[in-house]
Amino acid sequence: MTSSSAPAGAHAALPNQEPVVRMQGVTKRIGKRTIIDNLTLDVPPGEVFGFLGPNGSGKTTTIRMMVGLMKLSQGEILIRNHSISRDYEKAIRHVGAIVENPEMYKYLTGYQNLLHFARMIPGITRQRIDEVVQLVGLNARIHDKVKTYSLGMRQRLGVAQAIMHKPSLLILDEPTNGLDPAGIRELRDYLRLLAIEEGITVFVSSHLLSEMELMCDRVAIIQSGKLIDVRPMRQQQMETDLSKVFFEVDQPQTALEVLEGTGAALEGNHVVFLGNRENIAACNAQLVQAGIKVYGIRQQIKTLEDQFLEVTGGERIV
Amino acid sequence: MFDFLQLVNNENMKIYRRVRTWIMLGILLVLTLSISLLTYIYSGNISPSMWDLMQIQSVMSIMLVTVFTVVIAAETVAGEFSTGTIKLLMIRPWSRSKILLSKYVSLLLFGLFFMAVIFVWTIVTNMLFFGYDASPIMGSDMSQLTYWLLNYGAEFITMIVIVTLAFLISTVFRSGGLAIGLSLFILLGGSIVTGIIRMLDYAWVDYLLFANLSLSEYILGDASSITGKPLGFTLGVLAGYYVLFIAITWTVFNRRDIAS
Lengths: 318, 260
Ligand SMILES: Nc1ncnc2c1ncn2[C@@H]1O[C@H](COP(=O)(O)OP(=O)(O)OP(=O)(O)O)[C@@H](O)[C@H]1O
Ligand SMILES: [Mg+2]
Known about the structure:
A: Rossmann fold, 6-stranded mixed β-sheet, B: mainly alpha, 8 helices, globular, binds magnesium ion
């Protein structure tokens, strides 16, 4: 596996390159059904690691096993070299997590909820709680009962609870669920910040493919409980990489004639051809010289969504 | 150890930060007080002793304390499952056993707290209404205070067994309703069922949980009116059930996958 060239890839320089999470042959059977099938996966430190899969593919089940809520039928999960099955307390100590929805005690205030979880881990001061509240932007409502919170506010409280003890591994199951665009953006930026500044490894599952693309260094794709692929994200587009290019022009037919020989074609009102960066510049120059007005140039980069649909064959729910 | 107390602290917070808990206490206090008050108003020329009302008030309030503690027991584990908070609770550097123990401890503390409050409240209010009466209980030289202290103690032991059963059902079936229903059935309907089964005159009837719940009989007597057995026998049977309940509860809780 190549190391990612994303910003967080700077952590490739960290001396400790040991994976934060090691899953080896992880299998979960419930009754006769095999829900997770022989999953082997390493999560490198300091990365935002995406866990992507269609509904019912086993993301939540895998996360439940990672945090010890479910026992493994087979295999082993090591977190910072501690077995989650045999050495639970040590393994979980450096983990912060939200599993599915961030369910809190509704009859307690947000602050009391945080206090509750803070008491379970030594070393969390009141000051740290205040800091985290500030960080997730809940100051104004933290002393209100959680039952008066919106879904997004509960999500924020969930994040606060998960990062309060400065975990070295943060596991989030669909954390953007219920957040508004600003909230999603904030969370995304914050997760990247955690990874870059504090070296926290973030393991995040999501349905939102575009989301993963924006925040992950690496993505594992799972389908029907099987690991299909692990690929680095945010690859720089290579000079020679070909991509589909759309030209928006005033006279498409004339433009097509000008670009004869480049394999250009018409797609709707756009002139489309396959080329690299240099080709784009050259074509543009040709068009302008021929007196054609170029209103826009758009490059279609294969999104994770396309890749995802490609590997999973477009199949959604299994 | 200090850290474990923090867990108990958490469970306490989840009990006492709910309005429900204080309504329960309010009901208890108002109910016993109103019995004393009504008696005081309508007793006319006869002046009752402060101990006269103890029997009816204690039976009623101990029953209510048991019901309330059963409700808390039913809620403490099943409630975490039904709201999903169990997931956030369990993913901490604590073994499942200890988390469960902290719940159990807070539960017993709740029962003890309510028992103690109602004991003091009943005696103090009756004393204020009817004046202090130092005479011993009838047919014995035991003081009334000692008798009632022993009575509450005996009833507390019975309550622990019932509440532990409710805790078991709450944990094993994750259903608060079932936990409340079943354990209260054993408490309330138990003596009726035992009466019926006793007519069959089988020896094993004496080992039923139902048949061994009236410990307070032993304060003045040597044998149970239901089984005819001595105190040691009844305590032995209760201990047996208790150990069984605890073993099942902890084993199931430790093994079970949490997938709510
Ligand atoms: N307790 C359970 N008993 C039986 N089957 C289960 C149980 N929990 C999950 N499953 C099954 O396991 C599969 C994976 O479920 P899981 O919740 O892990 O999927 P997911 O990837 O998180 O899906 P989503 O994107 O919808 O959250 C599903 O087919 C589901 O039906
Ligand atoms: Mg899920």
